[in-house]
Amino acid sequence: MAKLNGAYFVGTGLGVVIALVGILIYCFISIECCDCHWISLDEEGLEKDFTHKLFGQHIASEVIVKAIKGSLSIPDPKKPLTMSLHGYSGTGKNFVGQLIARNLYKNGMKSQYIHVFVSTLHFPHVQLTDQYQNELQMWIRGNVTLCPRSMFIFDEMDKMHPGVINAIKPFLDYTSDVDKVDYRKAIFIFLSNSGGDKINEFTLSILMSGKDRESIELSQLEEELSLMVFNDNNNGFWQTNLIQTNLIDYFIPFLPLEFKHVVSCVRAELASRGVKNESIVTIIASSMVYYPKEEKLFSLKGCKTVASKVNLYF
Ligand SMILES: *[C@@H]1O[C@H](CO)[C@@H](O)[C@H](O)[C@H]1NC(C)=O
Ligand SMILES: *[C@@H]1O[C@H](CO)[C@@H](O)[C@H](O)[C@H]1NC(C)=O
Questions:
Q1: Are strands 290-291 and 298-299 parallel, antiparallel or unpaired?
Q2: What spacing in Å lies between the alpha carbon of 42 and ligand 1's midpoint?
Q3: 170-224 pLDDT, tens per residue?
Q4: Ligand 1 centroid to 80 CA: how many Å?
Q5: 285 partner at 20 to 30 Å CA-CA among 108, 165, 188, 273?
Q6: What digits encode the pLDDT tens for the residues 286-304?
Q7: Which ligand does the CA of 135 lie closest to?
Q8: Same-domain check for residues 32 and 173
Q9: Contact status, residue 139 vs residue 216, Cβ threshold 8 Å
Q10: Is 119 found in the same domain as 44?
Q11: Are 45 and 113 in contact (CB under 8 A)?
């Protein structure tokens, strides 16, 4: 009998070892796991990408790189990292999400630990708000349980129903564990156009006064943005609710792009297709629409339609 037991224990021991080796092989070779093999910050890559691939956003580059590096280096953060990116479409807000993803998750945007929600796509019907609230809370809870270092990107925040915004709020707070799940390692990124008008007006006034856009400091725009927040009724809820309650760590303005930035975007897009031709770069960049009417300083759609314009040529 004793012998049998011994054999039994050896057998179970072997089973456990095989299982562990199995998990190890599984994580290293094939399927993504929530561990540092799959999720670890490439600081150098992050800095490089923000310097060389994000055009015309000196404030965003500096603040976001600092925020990510700072927050991820703390082993025991007090709250999840929350950033709100403001500016017109085409200025690079979505792109920033991709840059963070590819330097933090081995699978980049394809990582199963990144979740992107677009208001008009995922939460389109006001009458379904209750359902959206429940689902969203369940998803955030479920996914953070699976992997504390999950990233949630909410696009079109300014079009999000207040009820849905309220559903996100509890997760952003300092409270360490809402229902026994620890959310403090999660990353929440909110994208919106709100404030874009102010940002553009301010940038225009700086350029018209003969100064460089690089002379604009975050503090100047923060002031502009916070004034706007309380005067803007259209998307006032998103603003006041999350901002007043101090749940957002960083407000990051995205400046309107000038011709030279569009040129950089086109050049990068062509390079990614193996094409190097400066005359095509100029032709495509010039075919974009610029405003204001007189000065034609800023690209109306930023770099948003660059890829499709390039398609027309090839
Ligand atoms: C994770 O989030 C996705 C939506 O992005 C959802 O479909 C899925 O059910 C969630 N997983 C869990 C375990 O809750
Ligand atoms: C660049 O593109 C233009 C316009 O399509 C073409 O005429 C020219 O030959 C190209 N130059 C090079 C170096 O390929």
A1: antiparallel
A2: 26
A3: 899 866 565 778 899 999 999 998 889 889 999 999 999 999 999 999 999 887 7
A4: 19
A5: 108
A6: 999 999 999 999 999 999 9
A7: 1
A8: yes
A9: no
A10: yes
A11: no
